[in-house]
Design goal:
alpha+beta; Dna Ligase, domain 1; six-stranded antiparallel β-barrel; five-stranded mixed β-sheet; 26% helix
Length: 427
């Protein structure tokens, strides 16, 4: 029967205790952590049967690191602190059963423990040179004299601490496939991707969930990893839709010598219960979400939503295309559908200080006469906002002799240094 207890693999090697190496090692296990600045620790419980046993698994991990130029010493057992101490003590590595590990721990020298060097020297000076001698002493006096670090290490040697803090939580939904002949062409990668997506979406359907973010990890023969990440505006488990999105980006991958393993992950997952469509098969919301996802690969996609403000430039906000606007649009007649990104300042002449403009001057060379005007529509500052309040505005709808219809604004009250702007074009 396969072993069901906790089994971990501790790796020591030059420069191995880095997050980048921990992420690279996730090809062997989804749970990988950096171990005390010395190496890596992998949770391999339940993985041995996939490789024909724990010894073949250990050999495969060692070969994988050797292929990228890293020489490692690896020890597979049950308690990571004990395995790390054994490697510090010079153990050559290998696979340890529970009985073998329990027999080796008492003979560990104190210099191999994860304690300060001065504490180890003080213990040796008292004749406490190995773990067996330490465990024979009353724990309380030892901790009071040498600190909690010694007590924690003795507990950790017997498996009393959680073994791994992964560099990132493992995904709930992940599928992978290895290839005897490395994949080197885009059509081959797309076919393999289709199979992985079918398996991933089956798992999502069983969990009544949908993916918001998926990632394809392509592991190359030379040991490098290339990642394609794809976000979705709405949770989905439609394999055909996900395949269209990812297949369009396969050309971004650089196989070189080829990919020996593909891993597909649903990194962001949301609940997605089964929904009953209409009898005519209508599913407009899903079709719109799929269309927006495809458009977002080529252009920036967004939508407008109303915002509580009577200032024209603040009354509309840009939100993600898949988001549902909150609030209702307030009908304001006789305003342009779109405002100028930056209002254009103009010169104006009025017959009376508070009358509509009768002449507009655009720059130095162009002046146009106003043949019709309506207004004003006065907008006062929003006094509840923090900071300096802008001046009040008077808006007019004007028609020029050339036929152009403009929405012009006087910023500031008449006689107070008011300035005139064109804020939009009327239909």
């Amino acid at each position: 029967m396969p072993r069901v207890g906790p089994r971990v693999l501790v790796l020591f090697g030059e420069g191995l205790a880095e997050v980048a190496w921990a992420e690279w090692a996730q090809r062997f296990s989804p749970l990988v952590g950096v171990w005390a600045g010395e190496g890596l620790v992998l949770d391999v419980a339940g993985l041995a049967h996939l490789h024909g046993g724990e010894a073949p698994l250990l050999a495969r991990v060692a070969r994988g690191f050797g292929a990228v130029g890293v020489e490692v010493r690896a020890l597979l057992g049950g308690v990571p602190s004990a395995l790390a101490a054994l490697l510090r003590a010079g153990h050559p590595g290998g696979v340890l059963s529970e009985a073998e590990e329990a027999a080796l721990v008492p003979r560990l020298p104190v210099s191999a423990l994860a304690i300060p060097a001065e504490v180890a020297r003080a213990l040796e000076g008292l004749g406490l040179r190995d773990v067996a001698a330490l465990e024979a002493q009353p724990r309380g006096p030892l901790v009071r004299r040498f600190g909690m670090v010694l007590g924690r290490e003795l507990l950790a040697l017997r498996g009393a601490r959680a073994p791994i803090r992964p560099v990132r939580p493992p995904p709930r939904h992940e599928v992978a496939r290895e290839f005897l002949s490395p994949l080197m062409t885009a059509p081959g990668i797309e076919r393999a991707l289709a199979g992985l997506l079918a398996l991933l979406c089956e798992g999502l359907a069983r969990a009544e969930a949908g993916a918001r973010h998926v990632s394809l990890h392509a592991l190359r023969v030379d040991g490098s990893v290339q990642v394609l990440r794809q976000g979705l505006g709405r949770a989905s488990r439609d394999a055909a839709h996900l395949h269209r999105l990812l297949a369009a980006r396969v050309e971004e991958l650089r196989p070189e010598e080829g990919f020996e393993r593909l891993v597909l992950r649903a990194d962001g997952v949301e609940a997605l219960p089964v929904a009953q469509h209409r009898l005519d098969g209508g599913a407009e919301a899903e079709q719109l979400a799929a269309l927006l996802d495809r458009l977002a690969q080529r252009v920036a996609v967004w939508r407008l939503a109303p915002r509580e403000s009577h200032w024209p430039e603040r009354a509309v906000a840009r939100i993600p295309a898949h988001e549902t606007p909150s609030g209702a649009w307030r009908a304001v007649p006789h305003r342009p559908l779109r405002l100028l990104r930056r209002p254009r300042e103009v010169g104006a002449m009025a017959l009376l200080p508070d009358a509509p403009p009768s002449l507009l001057r655009f720059g130095r060379a162009r002046t146009e006469r106003v043949v019709a005007a309506e207004g004003p529509e006065r907008i006062l500052p929003e006094w509840w906002r923090e900071g300096r309040l802008p001046p009040a505005r008077d808006y007019y709808r004007v028609q020029l002799a050339s036929g152009a219809r403009l929405w012009v604004c006087r910023s500031g009250l008449p006689g107070e240094g008011a300035r005139w702007f064109v804020h939009g074009y009327l239909p």
